[in-house]
Predict the structure.
Amino acid sequence: MAPHHQDHDNDRPSKRAKVMDTTGAAENTMAATTVSSTAALFQLARGHLDAQWNQREAVIKQSREITRESKKLIVMLQRHDPKVAFAESEMATFPAAKAKVLQMLSKLAAQFKSRQEFHRYSSNVKHCIQEFLEAVAFHYFLEFRRMIPFDDARLLLESLGLQLMPQDYIMGISDVSGEVMRFATNAATKGNTQWVEASRTYLQDFYHACLSLDASFNENDMNRKIDTTRESVLKVERLAYDLAIRQSEQKLFRKDLDVVMQESTAQ
Amino acid sequence: MDANVQVREVIKDRVKTIDLQLQAIQRRLLQSVDDKLAAVRSDLQALAQLVPEHQFYRYTRLYTSLLQTLCFVVAWQTYLASETVVTPEQVAERIGLPVELDHEIAESHIPLENLLHGLVQLPSELMCVRCVNCAAQQDCDRPLRIRAFVQELYSGFQLLNLKNDPLRRHYDVVKYDAKKIEEVVCDIKLRQLSRQS
């Protein structure tokens, strides 16, 4: 970083004073009055800017933590075994983890003194809200096998003191497709056709919903996310197809096996 | 969300009209521009009406540079009139929106940063337009007063703890402008061209 010229500038006041003395007295008095009010303005500005900077730093820090914790929630959800009922299983720690994130969000919301303040920091907070929404939406999918409605999500966030912007909702939901795809893949390896089916239906419906979005939705990321969603849809469709083929193969195989067994026992 | 997009579009349109008017003002700033400013002020009020309640910062990106230019125009005007640094009260009065200082304002207002951005553009404008021309036209007292004025602004900005943002970059430019003005003044003094040396 370039050396700060502060020291050099501090020499100037003395030089400046000497030069100023040789100029008219009238100029001095006029300068004095405006200087004091200007200085006052900048003192005020400094306090204002410093406070804003500090708050922004705090918000960013909290946002990062919330994002991290939300990601952990998602990992927990991925490990859930779909065959077991949702309320039981290894998800015992999930409610506590989720409560922790909710609390962090409330704390973040408390930073904003008003609804307007939220918008001032919305760009800093956007990412963690989206990540949290992703976790919530994924949870919702696992419980109800469909997409969490906007109003539900919005009410949840407002109960914490935050606001849900439609863009954040859509961005958060889009990331869920990736998670659903991963979940479906795991389910497929365990031969769980039900969940593969549910995932496929969900993803197809979601993808169609994405396509109906207005093109003026001005997030560049969104196009990338839609492409990723499409990839997920294709993968899960492929999975469903493979499973179906394998299962009918197995049925045929079993039929043939029965025939062979019958023939061999008959002999 | 479509409503959001609509609001954005309307705001963008309004901003463009106001921008054009401001550019016209800037080019003709040597003459009286009060009537133009009045037109801008009413347009700005209309703009302020468009912004939904409590969502001023949601759309702030659309009109922040507009507000900065506006503050600059008012500051320039004030300097031409009285050679003083414009006060926030004067800005609020001329533009028709309150300036956000120490307490929060719920309705449309001028964020303090925009005022600072406006002020920070003054020194280079003074340098380019006034200082050198004055010296060339044998008006050798002006540069001295300009120097004092710019020093006042500059020491004000020095009080701030600026981070690595656009305001900081503008402020760095002010340093160079202050130095150049100093050089012009030096030239004048050396040749004892000013009545006051």
User: Anything to note?
Assistant: The interface with chain B takes residues 5, 9, 16, 19-20, 22-24, 27, 30-31, 34-35, 37-39, 41-50, 53, 113-117, 119-120, 122, 166-167, 170, 214, 216-218 of chain A (CB under 8 Å).
